[in-house]
Design goal:
Layout (H helix, E strand, L loop, with lengths): L12 H11 L4 H6 L2 H34 L8 H4 L11 H17 L1
């Protein structure tokens, strides 16, 4: 008689949270003794770090492209080689400090 392996089911929410924690390198004790807020902030931090690393990789590609093309192109800048969604227009000092003020107000007032 051939025994069939048990059918794999999708993990529930708690099991997914455990998987995330173990993927972050947490021990079982750390997972079970942490607060929900700490857990989710850790995940957000991990995602932010991953996003920064990915952007750095793309910036490296753009710089390499600039180095290859610059001897053959006049007026070429690094940002003209490839435009990325995270490229922003340069803000004036007034706009920059207004944005900081708004961010601090949000932090203070929740």
């Amino acid at each position: 008689m051939d025994k069939k392996p048990p059918k794999r089911t999708e993990p529930n929410d708690l099991e997914l949270c455990e998987c995330w924690a173990y993927g972050l390198g947490w021990s079982e004790d750390k997972f079970w003794n942490s607060s929900i807020e700490y857990f989710f902030k850790s995940i957000i931090g991990f995602e932010l770090i991953s996003e920064v690393k990915e952007k750095q990789e793309w910036e490296r590609i753009r710089l390499l492209g600039f180095w290859v093309l610059s001897p053959y192109s006049k007026g070429l800048t690094v940002k003209k080689v490839i435009e990325y969604p995270w490229d922003e227009k340069v803000k004036t000092k007034k706009q920059f400090f207004k944005g900081l003020e708004t961010a601090f107000d949000k932090l203070e007032n929740g």
